[in-house]
Write a structure and sequence with these properties.
Number of strands: 7
Order of helices and strands: EHEHEHHEHHEHHEHEH
Strand content: 5-15%
Radius of gyration: 20 Å
Number of domains: 1
CATH topology: TIM Barrel
Structural class: alpha/beta
Shape: globular
Number of helices: 10
Helix content: 40-55%
CATH architecture: Alpha-Beta Barrel
Distance between the termini: 44 Å
Length: 230
């Protein structure tokens, strides 16, 4: 995937069984390609964030941030004292095993912190969340947002689409980059039209299963056609 032309790949620790040792291997693999890595931790948790950063994550995504206080907590987890609460270790993959000069001083300036807006309540707090110092970008989880609005599994409903457009427009007004997940090329293009700055497309599993089903359907249709031919 990293060699296929994508600008970035998401190493997802939230909806997969990937843990810190596995994410290190994933980050190593991505580093060998032209793509950048976005690491999504399982939760807005001080320890989980610390472990991801020590594992070498530099662009980090925090799920289910509901308000400005939770956004501040997320940012604090990525900063060493006195600005934040990140635990200090002398040697880990993030500092290239202690070989990056002045890592403790400059680490925060080289991070990108993305917070996820995943409910309608959080969308209503968007202005306050986006204004938290250290929040570099907003990312919308469309499936969870739809579910919170009573439209579980129906992202295409008008009310959900209107809310997605609202978030993009609000982020544009605030000058905050915003991203979203598109399930396919059509939805991805649509979200760019809404004003989203960046868009993730499907997933490796989604692409693999989708293409497999496409191939199977084509082969079975061809075989059925051959059986029916005189």
């Amino acid at each position: 995937m990293g060699c296929a032309g994508f600008d970035f790949l998401v190493a997802d620790m939230e909806h997969t069984p990937v843990d810190p040792p596995q994410v290190v291997d994933i980050l190593r693999a991505i580093a060998c390609t032209p793509a950048s890595a976005v690491t999504r931790v399982p939760w807005n948790d001080l320890v989980l964030i610390k472990r991801a950063l020590d594992a070498g994550a530099q662009t980090i995504m925090l799920p289910y941030v509901q308000n400005a206080e939770e956004a501040k907590r997320a940012v604090a987890a990525t900063r060493y004292p006195p600005e934040g609460l990140r635990g200090v270790a002398g040697s880990h993959r993030g500092s290239r095993y202690g070989t990056v000069r002045d890592y403790l001083i400059k680490a925060a300036s080289e991070l990108c912190v993305i917070v996820q807006i995943e409910t309608d309540a959080a969308a209503r707090e968007l202005d306050a969340i986006a204004r938290v110092p250290g929040v570099d970008s907003i990312f919308v989880g469309p499936n969870d947002l739809a579910a919170s609005m009573g439209h579980l599994g129906r992202i295409g409903d008008d009310a959900v689409q209107q809310r997605l457009a609202f978030v993009a427009q609000a982020c544009r007004r605030l000058g905050t980059p915003c991203g979203i997940l598109g399930s396919d090329p059509a939805s991805t293009t649509k979200y760019l039209g809404f004003g989203y700055t960046w868009v993730a497309i499907s997933s490796d599993i989604g692409m693999m299963v989708g293409r497999a089903q496409e191939y199977l359907a084509a082969v079975r249709a061809g075989a059925e056609g051959m059986r029916r031919s005189p």
